[in-house]
């Protein structure tokens, strides 16, 4: 099985960006932890971060036929990118939406995810464990497919 992890805008600044909200873990720490877990489970994993909506649309389109799952933190685009929502709907790859913070207990504009109606599920509020929980679900689902 293969999984693609997509990180949206400003997530390259994790570690120094509003640490009271997002913690001190860097993006490369997150990617390293996920890579280690995936490797132990025999799952191939790739990572991509972009601050550009179109680059994320391209990455989703190019994932078609190449990946079994996408773990996606669309960051601020979560709340208004119809282009990303349409890309997810178009490729029909199951996407797990993740957020480090609990978007539902923050500003009102973060309560809505325009991606939520087209993803498999959403995990938020667990800090960097949101990513790890998503990966755990992917590992279990891939194992179930192989049975
Ligand atoms: C975020 C939540 C978004 O509202 C915000 O714009 C982000 C990060 C999170 O991981 O908690 O950039 O997706």
From TrEMBL:
Catalytic site positions: 22, 99
Annotated keywords: Amino-acid biosynthesis, Aromatic amino acid biosynthesis, Lyase
Site (Transition state stabilizer): 17
UniProt-recorded Gene Ontology molecular function terms: 3-dehydroquinate dehydratase activity
Reaction catalyzed: 3-dehydroquinate = 3-dehydroshikimate + H2O
GO terms under biological process: amino acid biosynthetic process; aromatic amino acid family biosynthetic process; chorismate biosynthetic process; quinate catabolic process
Family to which the UniProt record says this protein belongs: Belongs to the type-II 3-dehydroquinase family.
Protein name (database record): 3-dehydroquinate dehydratase
Organism this protein belongs to: Selenomonas bovis
């Amino acid at each position: 099985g293969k999984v693609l992890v997509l990180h949206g805008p400003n997530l390259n600044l994790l570690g120094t960006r509003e640490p009271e909200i997002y913690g001190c873990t860097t993006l490369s720490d997150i990617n390293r932890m996920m890579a280690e877990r995936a490797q132990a489970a025999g799952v191939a994993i790739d990572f991509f971060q972009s601050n550009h909506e179109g680059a994320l649309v391209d990455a989703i389109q190019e994932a078609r036929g190449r990946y079994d799952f996408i773990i996606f933190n669309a960051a601020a685009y979560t709340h208004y990118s119809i282009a990303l929502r349409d890309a997810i709907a178009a490729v029909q790859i199951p996407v797990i939406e993740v957020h480090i913070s609990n978007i539902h207990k923050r500003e009102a504009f973060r309560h809505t995810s325009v991606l939520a109606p087209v993803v498999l599920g959403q995990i938020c509020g667990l800090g960097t464990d949101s990513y790890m929980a998503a990966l755990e679900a992917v590992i279990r689902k891939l194992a179930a497919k192989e049975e």
